[in-house]
Write a structure and sequence with these properties.
The protein has 496 residues and is of the alpha+beta class. It has 3 domains: 235 residues, no CATH class; 63 residues; 148 residues, Histidine kinase-like ATPase, C-terminal domain (Heat Shock Protein 90), CATH 3.30.565. The chain has 10 helices and 14 strands. The strands form 4 sheets. Strands 9-11-12-14-13 form a 5-stranded mixed β-sheet, with helices on one face. A 4-stranded antiparallel β-sheet has the order 5-4-7-6, covered by helices on one side. Strand 4 and strand 5 form a beta hairpin. The longest helix has 64 residues. It is rod-shaped and about 145 Å long. It starts with a helix and ends with a strand. This is histidine kinase.
């Protein structure tokens, strides 16, 4: 079952469109996922940096403990009272002028967050990664509340740690870091926010589109690290550059493949039409000489014309001409089929061009149905060529035959033979015929192709002659070109 070309084109178009849409949907989903992961990485970098900064402070306090006494910080949940607590104990060296030890203990009436959602017990918490992270964050905030009483957060250290954490996660954007404290006025009428510290990448000024990431590191979310940086869209696209490039190449290959498929189908369709035209044309051309020869032979046999010598010779000449025409037609068709065979071989020999042209010119003058004038210009006169004599003769014969057929009332043809600087032999056949439009010139060497002439069919042809010329010239390791202008004629040039 043959599908109409329009249906095939529509199916190909929608297949390609579906591929593009699916690829765009997949890339959009991937972009959203990578952007979300990158934002999570930023928050995780802030949390990890805060933990590391806190541990560095603890190490510093431990060193002070060795020199001056004892420092303890603890946070947790009192099962007896049902309250969460943060306490700290500081023992100062006896040499200290104040010489006092202090102990502070803070209790919260709030039920501890770590125990709020534990219907399934501790085992459920440990199996839930998000709950585990929440629990770890809560413990970290609890330790902060106790540690910050003794030692304030070091924003410079936190900035250094955060910079390394971001770089480790592939985030190399400039940023602005702030340490903020939020609280209420004594009468609880207004919320205020103080900027305790601010650090910025040198030369960076946040734009109006800059994104902010807030990390609250105390239990009541009063103390916040605020990170301001430009939108991470470009960074996500940069990380996706390999995938985007691969997808683009795949889409280009698919587009080219579909284009090539459509082009091949169109060429096959055109070829089918040309073959159909060739079959119709060649059938008519084969029938004509057969019918004429049959009529002449019938006249000789059935009308006693064989007894009249003059009439007999006339009808025998008609038969001979038609049989020659038929033979030439069959020979041309056979040549087209033979040149494709693997067993096809040329038999090159060296011969003078001056010995080849006179016979060809005379033959074409005799069989032409119009006046023919052919000018032959060979320089030097003893110019030789190495080629298969039979096929090369057919090449030149086809070019001369075309020049005569497509010339008006009188055919004026110029044949020039020269030797180029590269050592090749150049042969050009020029006429003053109808010419070939510029857009049709690249197609004249295609098999079965004939230049469209509308409804005018004065010139007989099969679309094989120039295809044969091009094929045989290429088998001689040469090339053939055409220069033409409608109404002024054409020039075919062979270089071998």
């Amino acid at each position: 079952m043959k599908l109409p070309f329009k249906l095939i084109a529509i199916l190909v178009f929608f297949s390609l469109l579906g591929t593009f849409v699916y690829q765009a949907y997949w890339l959009t989903g991937l972009y959203s996922t990578m952007k979300h992961d990158l934002e999570q990485n930023i928050m995780e970098a802030m949390r990890t940096s805060d933990y590391n900064e806190m541990m560095l402070r603890v190490e510093g306090l431990q060193k002070d403990n060795e020199n001056h006494g004892e420092v303890k910080v603890s946070a947790g949940y009192d099962s007896d009272t049902g309250k969460s607590f943060v306490n700290s104990t500081t023992t100062i060296d006896r040499k200290d002028t104040i010489g006092k030890a202090s102990k502070e203990e803070f209790f919260s009436e709030e039920e501890p967050r770590a125990a709020l959602h534990t219907d399934g017990g501790l085992d459920l918490i440990l199996r839930n990664k998000s709950t585990m992270l929440e629990l770890a964050t809560y413990f970290q905030q609890g330790l902060h509340s106790g540690l910050d009483i003794i030692s304030d957060p070091d924003v410079a250290v936190y900035d250094s740690l955060l910079s390394h954490q971001l770089l480790d996660k592939g985030i190399d954007l400039p940023y602005h870091l702030e340490y903020l404290y939020s609280g209420f006025k004594p009468d609880s009428s207004h919320v205020f926010t103080d900027t305790i510290a601010s650090i910025c990448t040198p030369g960076y000024e946040p734009s109006p589109k800059a994104a902010q990431y807030n990390y609250a590191f105390d239990i009541h979310s009063n103390k916040v690290y605020r990170l301001t940086m430009e939108p991470i869209n470009k960074l996500v696209l940069r990380q996706m550059s390999g995938i985007l490039a691969t997808s683009f190449v795949i889409l280009i290959i698919l587009s080219f493949s579909f284009w090539f498929l459509i082009r091949t189908i169109l060429r096959q369709k055109t070829l089918e039409e040309m073959k159909s035209d060739f079959t119709n044309n060649i059938t008519h051309e084969l029938k004509t000489p057969i019918a004429v020869a049959y009529a002449a032979n019938d006249a000789l046999l059935n009308f006693n014309l064989a007894e009249d010598k003059k009439q007999r010779e006339k009808y025998l000449c008609i038969c001979q001409e038609q049989l020659q025409r038929l033979s030439g037609l069959v020979e041309q068709i056979l040549s087209m089929s033979m040149e494709r065979r693997k067993t096809f071989r040329l038999h090159p020999e060296n011969f003078h061009l001056h010995d080849l042209f006179p016979t060809l010119i005379e033959q074409h003058k005799l069989k032409a149905d119009k006046p023919v004038e052919i000018i032959l210009d060979i320089e030097p006169e003893d110019l030789t060529i190495t080629a298969d004599r039979t096929h090369f003769s057919n090449i030149l014969s086809n070019l001369i035959d075309n020049a005569i057929k497509y010339s008006p009332e009188k055919a004026e043809i110029v044949i020039r033979c020269r030797k180029t600087e590269t050592g090749q032999v150049e042969i050009s056949v020029s006429d003053h015929g109808t010419g070939i439009p510029a857009d049709k010139q690249p197609l004249v060497f295609d098999k079965f192709y004939r230049v469209p002439t509308g409804n005018v069919h004065n010139t007989k042809g099969y679309g094989l002659g120039l295809f044969y010329v091009k094929t045989m010239v290429e088998k001689h390791n040469g090339n053939v070109t055409v220069k033409s202008e409608p109404g002024k004629g054409s020039t075919f040039t062979i270089r071998v």
